[in-house]
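Lecture notes, structural biology module. Today: joint structure prediction for complexes of two components.
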Amino acid sequence: MTAPHPAERGTAAPGLERLSLNQITTKHWSLPEAVRGCGQAGIPAIGLWRDKVAETGTARAARLVRDSGLTVSSLCRGGFLTAAGPEGRRAALDDNRRAVEEAAELGTDTLVLVVGGLPEGSRDLPGARARVADLLAELAPYAGQFGVRLAIEPLHPMFCADRAVVSTLGQALDLAAPHPAAQVGVVVDSYHVWWDPALPEQLARAGRDGRIAAYQVCDWTLPLPADVLLGRGHVGDGHIDFRSLTDQVTAAGYTGWIEVEIFNERIWATPGEQTLATVADRHRTHVATAPHR
Amino acid sequence: MTAPHPAERGTAAPGLERLSLNQITTKHWSLPEAVRGCGQAGIPAIGLWRDKVAETGTARAARLVRDSGLTVSSLCRGGFLTAAGPEGRRAALDDNRRAVEEAAELGTDTLVLVVGGLPEGSRDLPGARARVADLLAELAPYAGQFGVRLAIEPLHPMFCADRAVVSTLGQALDLAAPHPAAQVGVVVDSYHVWWDPALPEQLARAGRDGRIAAYQVCDWTLPLPADVLLGRGHVGDGHIDFRSLTDQVTAAGYTGWIEVEIFNERIWATPGEQTLATVADRHRTHVATAPHR
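The predicted structure, tokenised, for the full assembly:
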């Protein structure tokens, strides 16, 4: 079930060998449209979302992607592990087991986890974080059976209350540490980690421990919109130094896919072909010339 | 110039012995109005803002506060140290030296520093952070001459690009470390630090090193407003566990003022007396019963 390494594929346009389109970036495209768009733009990989996969049907989605020659770099997303009580726990386990199975059927080895925020009315942040650790212990071996790695995504601290109580790369690595690296890794998403003064040392640690499962990029632009979930920009439009960040991720030993994942209403309203052209252009300008190893 | 310790003052209403009103919370009150409001509400201390002090005149403001029996818990704010180039550097030093002098004249030993974001168009976060360290080295001895302590405030990471490249308590403590604790301390502001998984260990470290210069409180409420600067809520209205946080700050040895600092258009539009009544009520309910040492 291991996804082919970028170097093993031959469908990429020059300079796009490591580029993957996370399909949320073209939110208004169906899965077949996104697959076709990637093929036409010379983008060799795609990160899929479960809702889009469900629209198409998992088996058909898997066949479509396979026939297109694209690699599935990741499946977004499992997680939401913070519900309190036995019923919430069971529901989260069931849903994440299904997500693992879907990832395997789609031919990707990477299931991104957004761990969830505080339950309604709760102020117990340590409790919510403990539940994440607890459920990971149940899910990691299950994922391992399917050749899938759970990729814990630390989200920007502004999402701590409502989306993810895992807020830093160091914290994600602490959660991953008890588990085999083949079962649990971390996502490095530029938008969520760029501000972190501990980032250089935590990226080096992630590399030493073999934990970097995915590298996602988009830019931090200002002003933030009314819904801060939707404030991300194209690479190069904001405040993140992608040259430095990509060099650090590369120096940590990561040579896998670089997935562009952008939540932005304005970009979503742009025709998909145009968005992919911008994505490809920015990748070549700001990311792709980093040293490959 | 050392501000009296809460226990040394006798103007507080029961349960409000450690409460201070940061005057941004009643933004539409002038300094004389805020001083009068605190006296009437039994709030024994006030955190002043330089723009409000300037409106009134520093000497008159100092006299007004002194005559009222209030303690000035802090002056907000110096900082904005990240400008590049010799001219920006000199302007920042000049302004911060004036802020130190104003703090001394107002009778407070605490000058809050918001260190500034990235200069326009810059992506050089390490460079901006290095300039903060550089200017602190110039300013700390100057502040020491006036009996004033520079209190570095880590701001929530969502303000990293535009307001403060110091984003965590640990980072603020690293910046303070080269300087005497009497010259450089840190601000613990609930809104900015509550999410940090490293908070317990960094609070303990701050206590051991004698660095906690101020404890500010307001709550993290959702949804965030269009301008995220203005999204802060009254203590008790959001997701922060003030019992746990205050216990940790107290266990770290901090027994000073607890300053309520709220940026919120809706609260600003509320009559000041009503805001102060809510502030006092929430302080008694969520904060004041923490063990005092």
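Point to remember: The first strand of chain B starts at residue 19 and ends at 22.
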